[in-house]
Amino acid sequence: MARCCQLLTIFLLWALLMLSWCEASRNIVNGYDHSYLRFKSDSLIKRRDDTTRLKRFVRASLRSPTPTTVSVSDFGAKGDGNTDDTEAFVNAWKKACSSNGDVNLLVPKGNTYLLKSIRLTGPCKSILTVQIFGALSASQKRSDYKDFSKWLTFDGVNSLTVDGGTTGTVDGNGETWWQSSCKRNKAKTCTTKAPTALTFYNSKNLRVNNLRVKNAQQIQISIEKCSNVQVSNVVVTAPADSPNTDGIHITNTQNIQVSKSFIGTGDDCISIESGSQNVKINDITCGPGHGISIGSLGDDNSKAFVSGVTVDGAKLSGTDNGVRIKTYPGGSGTASNIIFQNIQMDNVKNPIIIDQHYCDKSKCTEEKSAVQVKNVVYRNISGTSASDIAIKFDCSSDYPCQGIVLDKVNIRGGKASCSNANVIDKGAVLPQCKIT
Ligand SMILES: *[C@@H]1O[C@H](CO)[C@@H](O)[C@H](O)[C@H]1NC(C)=O
């Protein structure tokens, strides 16, 4: 039956294609006959219409009219907050991933599902929307995590949508993990790992919308090795003193937009790491947290590349940093073509900072090499500094920062401290690196 439909579709497609070709060539002939340019362009428009109609038809015939819904409750998930629902989720995933057409994998609203670490892998046959309308709650037993590095992972799933429907919550229950961090408890060693709450790995065409993520064990949302990603309307929260709970962590990812989101956490609101390109951040509210960061780049003498980052529209309040670029001494590579604009900062400790001497390890040695920072524009940034340094460019003497532009910057309450930075002031700038 399915085979017969496919054949029919292919035949119809071919017939339509032939028809549109004939039509188009006849129009072109008409165009030549009368030597009217208008005719030629009319036929071009007509041809485009035909193709659009054809595309719509093919899409409609290949995809089912209404998506199939696979609910985790059909696979025995209890959602009472106490029963381990991991197996039910894995089985529901298997079903949803192997079905044809558009599939919604539903996590019903009003329930709380207790989960161990899970890796949900693709590729999937279906075009999947995971509807997290209820709450996912992380197990607090260490033995429920395979290597202590991830809680929920989507791996190798293309065209995936995760929709929280504004009620959906992903809760890492991080407290027990935070207590054993050396950043909280100085008596502990700094080698203790903690899981990332939600990881998207190796996916093309990913959307994450309307989701709440909170109290992750460590990083809250991590997007790794993905391309064509849209994250919007997410709310990410954890206490200011929760260690390493980066809000949205982006690494090795190309063409990503993060917009209309609120992030208040214990580490960077958004961190952009090596291998990321064409990153757009719009309409972000951040605080508490460590601000919006590019880096750390070049740790352990590594080569790092980040380019094409635009942060356009952000409000940061009470954060440790505003917009930051941080690189480790001893690294190499470049961080380039970066724009920070239309940003409001209130009571931020380091509103604008480039730190090429960053180090949060026990010891970092003086090194000659550094990740080159170049072409960074700060435009229309205003607000107040919570420390007496509002602008800090602490660049490497061997690889000075190049092409730094300050354009309409007005940060009150602090001065500028600039070393080894090639800075151009455009528009009104306060404070300035050079005292004129
Ligand atoms: C400057 O940035 C603020 C946000 O901080 C925005 O409201 C304003 O419209 C921007 N001004 C211009 C001229 O773009």
UniProtKB/TrEMBL annotation:
It is found in: Secreted, Cell wall. Keywords: Cell wall, Cell wall biogenesis/degradation, Glycosidase, Hydrolase, Secreted, Signal. SUPFAM superfamilies: Pectin lyase-like. The keyword Signal applies. PROSITE patterns: POLYGALACTURONASE. GO terms for molecular function: polygalacturonase activity. Residues 1-24 form the signal peptide. PANTHER family: PTHR31375. This is endo-polygalacturonase. It comes from Arabis nemorensis.
